[in-house]
Amino acid sequence: MSGSRITFLEGQSAQPQALDRVLAHVRRQLEDPALDPLRAARRPLLAGIGASYAALAVPVEVLRAAGIPAQRVLASEIENGLHGFDTDLLIGVSQGGRSSETIAAFKAAEGVPTLAVLNVTPSPLGELARLTLDLGNEPDSYASTIGFTATVVALDLIAGAVAGRADDPWDGIAAHTAAVRARAAEVVAALRHRAARCVAADCVASGASRVSAEEAALLLREVPRMPAAASVTRNYLHGEMESAGNTLHLVFGDGREVELARSLASAGHLTLLITTQDVDPAESLGVVRLPRTAPSVRVVLETVVAQELVAALSDERGVPIESFVFANDDTKEGGVDAADFELASRVAAA
User: Fold this and answer.
1) Which of 86, 159, 147, 83 is nearest to 118 (CA)?
2) Strands 200-205 and 44-48: what pairing?
3) Is 120 within 8 Å of 3 (Cβ atoms)?
4) Residues 121 and 94: beta-carbon distance below 8 Å
5) Per the confidence metrics, is the pTM higher than 0.90?
6) CA angle 25–28–33, rounded 5-degree value
7) Residue 103 DSSP code
8) Is the CB of residue 94 less than 8 Å from the CB of residue 56?
9) pLDDT tens digits along 274-285
């Protein structure tokens, strides 16, 4: 079954209300006793591919903070089984439930219970899983908007259930999302012309915000077709930043990231800092200030900023957002989704 497709811009506009719906939907599912095996897990292994893999850094951070050992792996790393992994629950993420690598991983997971986190139901991955948790078949864009941020919400709630967290941090997410998008639009408008002429981008963060850096790098490649890479802050400082030159820098964070952003901008490199700190913008430095929230909520808000940036760069560079270049027929069970071809045709005809 295919999920319904909307455009990237439609996804941005619909995102606040969609996140509220997903939040209520996932909370209800987690009250079901059928998911008791999830709450009993003590050594979860989380697997995904592409954007789904990026999102998995959120539950890893939440679980480790609660003293529960957790790790994420690319689903392709366990296509041949779980040898060498000490786990009591395999959690696989695939929004459409058709990712070939995650399906192969579930087929190879012998003797370990599996949980599929999905948007589209029913799906091939869901049929393989012992347990499922879904987002409610929310419409999503090809370069994911709602699907990605909603997955982050769901994964935080899952991690909270495993950790025994009393309350979750998501109340007010719709209002936060709308406010941050409006703030980001103002900042991005001032730098989009110069940013669109950069030859590449570096996305830098630490902790849970590694999700935001990895997703931003993927969106920059998918949407305005800008070469981009994601780095962990401390690693970036150890030599990776030396290649700066006609490059765009997205820096997410409040600690060493603030000084890093200022250093890059003072050297003349265009930098966008996404932070909760009160930092003044400067020549070559744009600042989007976020409200102080839990790390998982912050990831969603950081992603909203990245979405606003890539939409603007796509327009500035004259690249239609939905006009993907490559359609690999071996990454999804059943081949390329017909809905994506239909959407591309709509964009081309517009």
Assistant:
1) 147
2) unpaired
3) yes
4) no
5) yes
6) 140
7) H
8) no
9) 999 999 999 999
